[in-house]
UniProtKB/TrEMBL annotation:
The protein, known as: Ferritin-like fold-containing protein
Lineage: Bacteria, Bacillati, Actinomycetota, Actinomycetes, Kitasatosporales
Residues passing through the membrane, by range: none
A Pfam family per the record: MiaE_2
Residues making up the signal peptide according to the UniProt record: none
Organism: Streptomyces silvae
Boundaries of every Ferritin-like domain copy: 32-216
InterPro entries for the chain: Ferritin-like, Ferritin-like_SF, Ferritin_actino
Amino acid sequence: METPDNATEASDEAPAPTGIAAQDWATASADPQYRAAVVDLLGALAYGELAAFERLAEDAKLAPTLDDKAALAKMASAEFHHFEQLTDRLTAIDEPPTAAMEPFAKALDDFHRQTAPSDWLEGLVKAYVGDSIASDFYREIAARLDTDTRSLVLSVLDDTGHGNFAVEKVRAAIEAEPRVGGRLALWARRLMGEALSQAQRVVADRDALSTMLVGGVADGFDLAEVGRMFSRITEAHTKRMAALGLAA
């Protein structure tokens, strides 16, 4: 999954983790509600990585050059490796990966069906914008996870190289044909709305994840902070649009 290129670096003066965020998995997982939330989180992430692999493999078919096709195939391989890391962890904690992923399959499949790109450039923008929004969301949650789970989540959000690749290709296309920019800007705004709606639906449908976001884990993450979280995600999206040369 794509790591946002402009992800905010942690402040040197940030307070030390407290509560569950300072515990390891063995300690934190003694709380059954927390364990259920983590299983949901890993299941959602795993299915997202599998879907990203499938999407990048499909996008490679639209690539205009052999070099572009090879680059996307390499990125798809990285996404599948992330998928394997997540399913291996689920297996290690005695949770069947398929059962953990199943609750999220329909929502993610619906999102991808509703936002199917019509061409190569729309596919690039979708992967860059959509994956980055998802990464922002998971990074917000990761800050409040136990140390072992946080390390895993952050590792699978590592940059596959797609962000810089998409920016380079989209900016070059707009420079060659400026009219393309308007169409891609509208497309990116649609993706933003669909991605945020999907994230909110997924959380609302899963009690354990909802509890995690509104106060069931570390540091008192309350409803007001949820609103601020989505504001930060929106701000990061605006910066990415600028990087693409598109109006937010």
